[in-house]
Amino acid sequence: MKTLKAKKSYLNKQTFRISDLIFIRTAIPLEEIMKGENMIEPIQIVKHTINDVSRMGANGTPYIEKSYSVFKGSQRVKAALQLGYTHIEGIIINE
Prior knowledge:
This protein has helices at 31-34, 74-82; strands spanning 3-4, 14-17, 21-22, 43-47, 68-72, 87-92. The protein is of the alpha/beta class.
């Protein structure tokens, strides 16, 4: 487990597996993190309720729901992925 940690501390800060997050995949990785600088703020995450009924997406492909989506910080997530991190620190903003 390789975690991208935030410098700022929050009581409700948690560590999230990047593969469990929905984020903007086309986001440009944050340049500062790519250059080796620390992440200042944790990412902001919205927690979702998973539907009990399975749904179908485009062309009949099963729709896979995830519990968390990134509200603010997709560029940080993208940079973390490119640098080989598997986890990232964040805070849930809707609890």
